[in-house]
What we know:
- With about 675 residues, the protein is α+β, with helices and mostly antiparallel strands.
- Among the domains are: about 195-290, PAS domain (Beta-Lactamase); about 380-540, Histidine kinase-like ATPase, C-terminal domain (Heat Shock Protein 90, 2-Layer Sandwich), CATH 3.30.565; about 560-685, Response regulator (Rossmann fold, 3-Layer(aba) Sandwich).
- Strands 11, 12, 13, 14, 15, 16 and 17 form a seven-stranded mixed β-sheet that branches. A five-stranded antiparallel β-sheet has the order 2-1-5-4-3.
- Strand 18, helix 19 and strand 19 form a beta-alpha-beta unit.
- The model is unreliable at about 1-10, about 495-500, about 545-560, about 645-650 and about 680-685 (pLDDT under 50).
- This is histidine kinase.
- Keywords: Coiled coil, Phosphoprotein.
- It catalyses: ATP + protein L-histidine = ADP + protein N-phospho-L-histidine.
- Its EC number is 2.7.13.3.
Amino acid sequence: xAKPADPFETHSALTPEQRRRYDLLLAGLDLLDQAIAVFDxxxxxxxxxxxxxxxxxxxxxxxxxxxxxxxxxxFNAQRGEYGExxxxxxxxxxxxxxxxxxxxxxxxxxxxxxxxxxxxxPIPNLGFISLWTDVTEQRRxxxxxxxxxxxxxxRVRERTAELEHANREIDQxxxxxxxxxxxxxxxxxxxxxxxxxxxxxxxxxxxxRAYAEWFGETKQGIVGxxxxxxxxxxxxxxxxxxxxxxxxxxxxxxxxxRKNAEGRTVHARSVVVPDVSLEGGFKGYxxxxxxxxxxxASQAALIQAQKMEAIGQLTGGLAHDFNNLLSIIIGxxxxxxxRQPAGGDPGEYLDPALHAARRGAELIKRLLTFxxxxxxxxxxxxxxxxxxxxxxxxxxxxxxxxxVSTRLPEQPLHAFVDPHQLENALLNLAINARDAMPAGGELxxxxxxxxxxxxxxxxxxLPVGDYVQFDVTDTxxxxxxxxxxxxxxxFFTTKPFGHGSGLGLSMVYGFVRQSGGNIRVRSxxxxxxxxxxxxxxxxxxxxxxxxxxxxxxxxxxxxxxVLLVEDEAEVRRIIRLQLxxxxxxxxxxxxxxxxxxxxxxxxxxAFLVSDxxxxxxxxxxxxxxxxxxxxxxxxxxxxxxxxxxxHSGESAEPDVPVLRKPxxxxxxxxxxxxxxxxxxxxxxxx
Length: 686
């Protein structure tokens, strides 16, 4: 710390105890990683801490008491700190801003890649204080979140080294700032960190404004009170061991959480430095704390997003196997029903089984919506009109004691979204709201434009841009905190057994994420719940002339067999039975390579029906491409149990249709009928 001349000559008038406390407060500034500089109203440099020279790479000869602020700015401009441009113009702009004596905050990237957060705070009638914080690692961590654990360990080692270096610097301090205690308090109040001085009896001697506001108190109101009283019994129990460690003369660092006056959990990271007198003996604590609530929220959001992504991937992967199983069940049950003797009553047993199997297929579709695997048909949708129509439907659908109100934009607002899925999402949210208000209440749906800036993009996991925000709010019973983190998980529900599948919110989550948006739930038990989701905004759709659709080449009708390719034997058997019942002769292949050999050697194959995903190195899409190269007019139908037909590559011809499992004989017949040449459709198979 530089040792400036003291124009007030107040330091010598202090008592020894005041001088000790004063010096320790000043020396404590050098424990900070932030660089601090104080300028008078001229403006000229009055004082600074050692981090200023280290953080901004200033030569030792440059910094001195009375250094004009303009000279410091010109030094930075000449070495390119403010980018390219006329040096005098760059200096003039910053001098004008400084003379305005207004609070400001900017982030500046230095030529060496270092990113500094610069905060300026005026000191009434005296000058201003500037605070530089190195946020390079923080910005890098936001862009490289996947490497967070490795970076965090490196950061801890770096911080530890810096702290050890700071300890050595404390012993080398040759002098201290000679400013009045009141002026130093103004500086401490301007620092965006929580600072306190506590005596050996754990009672507060001093707290700056930020520290007092953290506890919802004034600086005067916190002095004299105990740590236990301010923290509360639960939070105090978590930090007591750290305080006892500091009493032994050790510097300690820890994180803690507490509930504020609004009942919200907040988090802080603290460094406690023991106050040890020159004569020896523990006198109290110096505390430096930083609010890390937003950081904790970001970490929790990341963990939740990763968990939901993993569940979605698992759901999408299982869909193929379930659809194959349901194809076998539905096909066999349908065949069994058709083969029952006349006069019997198979429907009593088979109809419920078929109905249950088809419900299983529908359940898989809903799971795929959660897994973001279901095909959507997005387009420009005027959301105001859609929500207005939905509100009229909801008014008739919900119970009479639930009032539905809307707040819609005055001008047309368009979102790029599948309108049917959006309606289903709003309906699901409305039903959940109704169930949360058994005694009645209010359901509010608000729609508004929303811009996601760069500063918020990483936090909400969305690209920068314009979106449409939907707020669905109820006045119901709310959601307990332990359940709030799980509301999007499939099959999780707080409703009684038989009153919900637990797929409503998971379906909404999958639809919103697949549509390029995101969703959050805020809830207070006993007060109500708000579900907020955003979807990409788009312009007004233009009426463009439809482009002529290229017609596929005319195909010659064949009377030969259908080549059926399916690796699951039981699924292959069911599809073979359906084809033969439709009147098609069938030859079979268990994989793509055997099917390709048949295509090369059997000339009269009329249709190719192939599974999409198969073992053996040649899947359905590649087989379709090879078949089209061999026989350009050959009708091809792909079947799949996966979420989307792009699961196995992008090599298939663009006009090859896909039939999704499970399907019945009628759906297969319709798909094959669509593949037949127009001249042959008059004689469709039975």
